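My current task is to audit a protein record that another person submitted. Alongside the sequence sits a line of tokens, each denoting a local backbone shape. Please read both lines and tell me whether the tokens look consistent with the sequence. Do not assume that whoever made the record got everything right. Thanks in advance; the entry in question is below.
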Amino acid sequence: MDQQTGYSPSFKRPAEIMRMRRKRARSDAAVLRSPSGLDPSDSPGQSSSSATCVRPFSPGPLFSIQNRSGGGTKRRNPFANIENTGSTCSPRKKLFIYNETDKEVETSTQKEEDEATERKRTEAEHQQNRATKSPESPSSIAPSSISPASISPASISPPVCTEYPPDWSLKTRVLFTSPLSLSWTEQPKAQEEAVGLSHSCRAQFFSPPHSLQDPRSCSELRSAFQQSLVYWQHPSLPWLSLFPRINAERSFSGRSTPWAQDVAMQQSLMREWSVSLSSLYNLLKSRLCPYFYLCSYQFTVLFRAAGLAGSGNITALISPTTRGFREAMKAEGIEFSLPLVEKRKRSRDPHNLMADEGEEDEEEGELRSQQEEGEDDGGDEDGSFSWLKEMGVQDKIQRPDGITIQLRKEAHSVCVDHKPESVVCVEGPHTFTLINFLINWKGVVAAAGSQAGLPPTLLAPAAFRGATMHMLKVRSVNAKSQVGSTYQNISSLELTGPILPSSLHAITTLLRPAQKGNFSAVLYTHPPSAVMNVNSRNQQCADLSVDLSGCGLRPASIQQLQQPSSLGKTALTHVTMNDYGYAWKN
């Protein structure tokens, strides 16, 4: 064996290894039987450095010489991971190895096992509590147990909207649908209708509870619904529908219009209309009427009291307009602005926002100078083309005439006519001048056609001189809607007529508890009034200092209409309430 190639002198036969192990076991037993626990061969004053930190089962814990001593240091297992000791050598396995030789090892191992068991039980309870925790109380979860990375965006529920944005556009039709029956809105009793009309005139309102079990048996709710359908109109002709007025020739054709050829009747209608318009403006200035609409055959005007839509002054929005109408207003000294045109210019040049606020609108400034430029061009026309003569081509190029030159200069001011961008805003004392202008301007009444001689329609939520009380038309229908492969019963409520912003808010306020917070609405907007949601330059924040408690609206409706509109030149088309939270589309 010694002469074989590759033989290692340190090699030991298996029989020799077993003999050394038996000898080591007898030596360990002798040490344990000795009183001091030390090897007899060692001197009393000498300690074994090799046995001070013995690793009996690599990679297990180190034990002192008082606990164990042996005939050498146990070599480390090369396949073991010291860092993962807890996973490779469990406390239960250590207990099985050392429980017959060392009581202290057994005690410490048992303690480690109990601590591990308790730790696992605590983690299991914590995970169970976190899984069963209610989503309505996220603050009850300990912050230390939740990491920011574990919170996904989908797990964060959006805030519940208790109100939809104010919409100043007129609605021609609204269709409500709900899984619960809406039959309580139709066929009111005589007493319920009388109470609703009386409360409308006296500005008394019913505050519904949060939820109603049986809306049909609630007489106060049904009376409040009748109250929310009321609006005031002038003039009132039972055989004619006086709203809408724009592009409404078909509804007037074939109807009796005795004033069309009678000048005296036309003058009488205009006198009564002027009195009603003056009465409305006085109510508006006294904050006894919140707003009113003037619907002509070619434009619509919205007058709002001070304190509404975030403005501290009386405001008037006119849409759509033409260059001729704006020129007539300027001739009367009425100052106005084009909010959408100004907004577009500010968006194109964001660096000159402060300069735009102090300067006059460029669009209207050019319009004011059109007449002067036209007069100057007429006298200087030959001089403006003198360069053609100097070049010798004056006979080869056709010179444009004065009308063409004037049309080119006015093209930029005419391009917005009859468009949403042509909306005009009048504020402050100039609204009174606008009232006088509308009373005296002949263009406010059609000179020909089916609407000839008929004054514009006045609509308001409060009573005024010469006004007639009207109510929206209501129709309730039960139908079936297909949801997947099945059909679901739904109830619908259709409202037709000039639906004012306060009427829409009052109806949705009553539907909220009656339908248990689940309904949807499809809104049909009068197109010229859709742009009425635009904010003027001075409408920046709600002016809550103005007292509007006597205007005849619900406090909740006043609070909503005081906020600046966020819809811009659009209007609401869908409003949905689900679990007492609003969602909308525009």
